[in-house]
C-alpha cells in the first residue's frame, strides 16, 4: 500500500456515501459546502466526499460528526439552481482518509491520505468463481426487490475487475449507511468482496421474509378490506417478530395512571385485574378494545376530586341577585342550604325541583346556584328519554356499551360534588326497554345514592355529595314515587313590572352585546317595554320578550350601518315601526253587566288568562250542550253546575222544571284553544243561574273555584297567574275559594294592588257577590 497526502476541500454528505468508480448527483445548499465546491472548481475540480454519522446535524464538527474514510472525487458538472441550491454530478476516483483538518474557516479543508488498494493475487478460476457468486446474489436480489433495475444489473455484469464490481454492488445495495461505510473502509479486495456479498445475501433474506409476510396476509383477507388487511399484517409481523412491546408499553402507561388515581383500593384492584387481562390479549383483539374503553372510563371519573363549597352567604346572595330578578323562594332555599352547611359539615344535599312555565329562568338559575356554591355544573336533558340504560348505562359486554348519563355528567364536571341539572323531568317516557323515571329513584334517594351502581361501571358511585336540581313545566306527568323524592318549588309567571326589570337588567344588555351595539346607540323607554310585553308577547316567562328585543336590535343595526341613523330611542309611539302590528290582545271586561255572561280565570302553561263563559237558555225539551273545545274535567264541572242549579231553583226565581222545557247551551269563546280543569265550576254555575233567572252579573267581577253538587267551593291552583290575568282585563273584584287564602300571603303587593279579593265558601256567597239585585221573571 502506498499513501500520498494531499490537501482537498471536504464536503460532508447526509445519509449517503460515494464509492470509487461510481457516478452520483446530489444537491448542495449549506454555505460551507457550496464554498468547498467553488474552491474545488478552482483547484482541478477535485474534492473529498465523506459521510456524516448523524444526518440531522446541520453544521458537522471536525471529528465527532463525520467518518474518517471517504472518497476522492472529481466534479463532472455543477449547476446553480434557484434558492441558492447547487446540483453536482461527481465521479468517485479513489479511497481516501482524513488525516487532519486545516485552519480554513470559510469551508472544510483537510489533509487527505490517498489509499491504494492492497493487491492480493487472485487466480483466474477464483476470480471466475467470485464473479459467478456475485451474479447469482445480484440476480436473487433483483427477484425480491422490484426497485432494483435490470439496467443496473447489466452495468455490474460488464465490469471487468472484482474490486470495481464490489464497489458498484455496495453502492446500489439498500442497506444502512454504517454497513456501506464498513465496505468503503475495507482495502483488501477479497475481504471487501466477502463483506459485500454477505450483506447482499442478508438483504435478500430480509426482503424474502417481508414478501412472505405480505403473501400470508393477502391469502387471508379480501383485497377491498383495507382496515382488516392492516390488522392482519400487524398480526403476522408480531407473530414473526414475537414483539408485544406495544401492548406492554400501553399497559405500563395505564398502570402508572392507576397508581396515581385518587380512588379507593377496591377500585384500583378492579383496574389492576382488567390490566392483567389486557396484557394477555393481542393488540388487535376486539375484547381488548372493550377493556381499554372501560379502563379509560374509570380513570376519567372524579372519584375523590371535590371543590371546596362556598359558605359565604352574602356573596351567594349577591351572585343570585346579579344573575336573576325575582325568584325569591328559590334564592331563599339556596341561602338556607348554605346556612345549614356552614353549621353542619355533613348533611344530605337537597333534591330541588323547580316547576313553572317555560321561559321563567328555571334552567339558567341552576348555573347561578352552581357559581354561588362554587360547584362545577353539568346538565342532563331528560326530554324524550325512554330507555332505562340512559340513566344506568349498558352492560359493558354489549357492543357499543357506554355509561349512563349520570356517570357522564360526573366525568363532564370533573368533580364528585358538582351541581347536576336534571332538565325537563316531566317529559320522560317509557317503553319496553324500561322506565327511566324508575331508574332515577335510586339516583334521587339521599338514603341510598351513596352506593349508586351504573351497569357499565359495575362499582359503587357515591352521589351523596351531588346537588341535584330538576326542572319541569308541570307535575301532572311526573310519577308519584319520583315526585316523593323531590322538594317542589313553584316558579310562577312574571308580572309586567318584573318583566320590565328583567329586560332592563339582563335582556337588553345581552342582546346589545350579541348584535354589537352600545347602550348609547339603542335605548328603550319603560312604556315601550310594557307595550312590547302586553301586545307582542303572551307568555309567563321572558323568552319571547328577549327575541323581540333581538329583532329590534337587528333592525336598528341595519339602520346604523347604512347610515340612516346614529342612535335610536324605542318608545311607545315608534315600536310598531320595528315590530309591526300588535300580535296579542287581552280580553277586557264587558262595558256593562249582562245576563248569562261571567268572567272566569284560567291557568295555562304560558301563564294566566280570562275566560268569558256565555250561557243561552231557549225553549226546548231539556237538551244540554257545551262547546269551545272543552276537556272532560270541565264537562263534568258543567254537569255538576246543572245539578246544583236544579237543587236551588226554588230560591232564585228559576222555573223548577227548566230541565224539561228549556235547552241550555254553554259556550266558551276561543274555540280553537283547548280548555280543561275543574276551576271553572263556580263560573259555569253562576252563568247558568244568571241565564235561567234573568239576573245580570257584575261586569267587574271574575271568579275561580271548583264546585261540588252541594255548592261547596273547593281550592284551585295557579292563583298568581289568574290574578295577573284579572288585573290585565280590568277586573276590580275577584272571588276565590277560602282555602286559597293561605296562597295570597305568598303573592306580592304589586299584583294585589287594585284588586278586591273576596273569599267564598259556597255558591250562596258567590251569587251574593256576583249577581245584581234586580230581577226579571224568566218564566214568562
Automatic annotation (TrEMBL):
Domain called Lon N-terminal: residue spans: 8-204
Induction behaviour: By heat shock.
Keyword Transferase: no
Enzyme class: hydrolase
GO process terms (BP): cellular response to heat; protein quality control for misfolded or incompletely synthesized proteins
Location of the Lon proteolytic domain: 592-773
Coiled coil: 199-281
Alphabetized GO MF terms: ATP binding; ATP hydrolysis activity; ATP-dependent peptidase activity; sequence-specific DNA binding; serine-type endopeptidase activity
Catalytic activity: Hydrolysis of proteins in presence of ATP
Pfam families named among the record's database cross-references: AAA, Lon_C, Lon_lid, LON_substr_bdg
Record-level GO cellular component terms: cytoplasm
Database matches in Gene3D superfamilies: 1.10.8.60, 1.20.5.5270, 1.20.58.1480, 3.30.230.10, LON domain-like, P-loop containing nucleotide triphosphate hydrolases
Intracellular or extracellular location(s): Cytoplasm
Swiss-Prot/TrEMBL keywords: ATP-binding, Coiled coil, Cytoplasm, Hydrolase, Nucleotide-binding, Protease, Serine protease, Stress response
Annotated binding of ATP, by residue: 356-363
Enzyme Commission number(s): 3.4.21.53
Catalytic residues (UniProt): 679, 722
SUPFAM superfamilies linked to this entry: P-loop containing nucleoside triphosphate hydrolases, PUA domain-like, Ribosomal protein S5 domain 2-like
Quaternary structure annotation from Swiss-Prot or TrEMBL: Homohexamer. Organized in a ring with a central cavity.
UniProt xrefs under NCBIfam families: lon
Protein family (similarity comment): Belongs to the peptidase S16 family.
Function of the molecule: ATP-dependent serine protease that mediates the selective degradation of mutant and abnormal proteins as well as certain short-lived regulatory proteins. Required for cellular homeostasis and for survival from DNA damage and developmental changes induced by stress. Degrades polypeptides processively to yield small peptide fragments that are 5 to 10 amino acids long. Binds to DNA in a double-stranded, site-specific manner.
Protein name per UniProt: Lon protease
Originating organism: Petrocella atlantisensis
Gene: lonA
Amino acid at each position: 500500500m502506498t499513501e500520498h497526502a494531499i490537501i482537498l476541500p471536504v464536503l460532508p454528505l447526509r445519509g449517503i456515501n460515494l464509492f470509487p468508480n461510481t457516478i452520483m448527483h446530489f444537491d448542495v445548499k449549506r454555505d460551507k459546502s457550496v464554498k468547498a465546491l467553488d474552491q474545488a472548481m478552482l483547484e482541478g475540480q477535485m474534492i473529498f466526499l465523506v459521510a456524516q454519522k448523524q444526518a440531522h446535524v446541520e453544521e458537522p464538527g471536525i471529528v465527532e460528526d463525520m467518518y474518517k474514510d471517504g472518497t476522492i472525487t472529481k466534479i463532472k458538472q455543477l449547476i446553480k439552481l434557484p434558492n441558492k441550491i447547487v446540483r453536482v454530478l461527481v465521479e468517485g476516483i479513489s479511497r481516501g482518509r482524513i488525516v487532519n483538518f486545516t485552519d480554513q474557516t470559510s469551508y472544510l479543508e483537510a489533509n487527505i491520505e490517498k489509499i491504494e488498494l492492497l493487491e492480493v493475487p487472485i487466480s483466474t478460476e477464483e476470480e471466475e468463481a467470485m464473479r459467478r457468486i456475485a451474479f447469482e446474489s445480484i440476480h436473487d436480489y433483483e427477484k425480491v426487490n422490484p426497485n432494483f433495475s435490470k439496467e443496473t444489473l447489466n452495468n455490474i455484469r460488464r465490469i471487468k475487475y472484482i474490486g470495481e464490481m464490489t464497489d458498484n454492488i455496495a453502492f446500489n445495495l439498500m442497506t444502512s449507511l454504517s454497513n456501506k461505510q464498513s465496505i468503503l473502509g475495507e482495502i483488501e479486495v477479497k475481504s471487501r468482496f466477502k463483506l459485500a456479498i454477505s450483506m447482499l445475501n442478508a438483504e435478500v433474506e430480509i426482503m424474502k421474509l417481508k414478501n412472505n409476510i405480505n403473501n400470508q396476509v393477502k391469502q387471508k383477507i379480501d383485497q377491498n378490506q383495507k382496515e382488516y388487511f392492516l390488522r392482519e399484517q400487524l398480526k403476522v409481523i408480531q407473530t414473526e417478530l414475537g414483539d408485544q412491546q406495544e401492548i406492554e408499553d400501553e399497559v405500563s402507561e395505564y398502570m402508572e395512571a392507576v397508581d396515581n388515581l385518587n380512588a379507593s383500593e377496591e377500585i384500583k384492584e378492579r383496574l389492576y385485574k382488567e390490566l392483567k387481562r389486557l396484557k394477555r390479549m393481542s393488540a388487535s383483539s376486539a375484547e381488548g378494545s372493550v377493556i381499554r374503553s372501560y379502563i379509560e372510563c374509570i380513570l376519567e371519573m372524579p372519584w375523590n376530586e371535590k371543590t371546596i363549597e362556598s359558605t359565604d352567604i352574602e356573596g351567594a346572595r349577591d351572585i343570585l341577585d346579579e344573575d336573576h330578578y325575582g325568584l325569591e323562594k328559590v334564592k331563599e332555599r339556596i341561602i338556607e342550604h348554605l346556612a345549614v352547611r356552614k353549621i353542619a359539615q355533613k348533611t344530605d344535599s337537597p333534591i330541588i325541583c323547580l316547576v313553572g312555565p317555560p321561559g321563567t329562568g328555571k334552567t339558567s338559575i341552576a348555573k347561578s346556584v352552581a357559581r354561588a356554591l362554587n360547584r362545577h355544573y353539568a346538565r342532563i336533558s331528560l326530554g324524550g328519554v325512554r330507555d332505562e340504560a340512559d340513566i344506568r348505562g349498558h352492560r359493558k359486554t354489549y357492543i357499543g356499551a357506554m355509561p349512563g348519563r349520570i356517570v357522564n355528567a360526573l366525568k363532564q364536571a370533573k368533580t364528585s360534588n358538582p351541581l347536576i341539572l336534571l332538565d325537563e323531568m316531566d317529559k320522560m317516557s317509557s317503553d319496553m326497554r324500561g322506565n327511566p323515571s324508575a331508574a332515577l329513584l335510586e339516583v334521587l334517594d339521599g338514603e341510598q345514592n351513596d352506593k349508586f351502581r351504573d351497569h357499565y361501571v359495575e362499582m359503587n358511585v357515591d352521589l351523596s355529595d351531588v346537588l341535584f336540581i330538576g326542572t319541569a313545566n308541570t307535575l301532572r306527568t311526573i310519577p308519584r314515587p319520583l315526585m316523593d323524592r323531590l322538594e317542589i318549588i313553584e316558579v310562577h309567571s312574571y308580572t309586567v313590572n318584573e318583566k320590565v326589570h328583567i329586560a332592563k337588567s339582563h335582556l337588553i344588555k345581552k342582546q346589545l352585546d350579541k348584535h354589537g351595539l352600545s347602550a348609547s346607540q339603542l335605548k328603550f323607554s319603560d312604556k315601550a317595554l310594557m307595550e312590547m310585553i302586553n301586545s307582542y308577547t303572551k307568555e309567563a316567562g321572558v323568552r319571547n320578550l328577549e327575541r323581540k328585543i333581538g329583532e329590534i336590535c337587528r333592525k336598528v343595526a341595519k339602520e346604523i350601518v347604512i347610515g340612516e341613523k346614529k342612535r335610536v330611542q324605542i318608545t311607545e309611539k315608534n315600536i310598531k315601526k320595528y315590530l309591526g302590528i300588535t300580535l296579542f290582545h287581552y280580553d277586557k271586561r264587558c262595558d256593562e253587566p249582562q245576563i248569562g255572561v261571567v268572567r272566569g280565570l284560567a291557568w295555562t302553561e304560558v301563564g294566566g288568562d280570562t275566560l268569558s263563559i256565555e250561557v243561552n237558555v231557549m225553549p226546548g225539551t231539556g237538551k244540554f250542550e257545551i262547546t269551545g273545545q272543552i276537556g272532560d274535567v270541565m264537562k263534568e264541572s258543567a254537569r255538576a253546575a246543572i245539578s246544583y242549579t236544579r237543587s236551588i231553583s226554588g230560591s232564585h226565581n228559576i222555573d223548577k222544571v227548566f230541565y224539561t222545557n228549556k235547552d241550555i247551551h254553554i259556550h266558551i269563546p276561543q274555540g280553537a284553544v283547548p280548555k280543561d280543569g275543574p276551576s271553572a265550576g263556580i263560573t259555569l254555575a253562576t252563568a247558568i243561574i244568571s241565564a235561567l233567572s234573568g239576573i245580570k252579573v257584575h261586569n267587574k267581577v271574575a271568579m275561580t273555584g271548583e264546585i261540588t253538587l252541594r255548592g261547596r267551593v273547593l281550592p284551585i291552583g295557579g292563583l298568581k297567574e289568574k290574578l295577573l290575568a284579572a288585573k290585565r282585563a280590568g277586573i276590580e273584584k275577584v272571588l276565590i275559594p277560602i282555602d286559597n287564602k293561605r296562597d295570597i300571603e305568598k303573592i306580592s303587593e304589586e299584583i294585589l294592588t287594585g284588586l278586591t279579593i273576596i273569599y267564598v265558601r259556597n255558591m250562596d256567597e258567590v251569587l251574593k257577590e256576583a249577581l245584581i239585585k234586580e230581577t226579571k221573571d224568566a218564566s214568562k
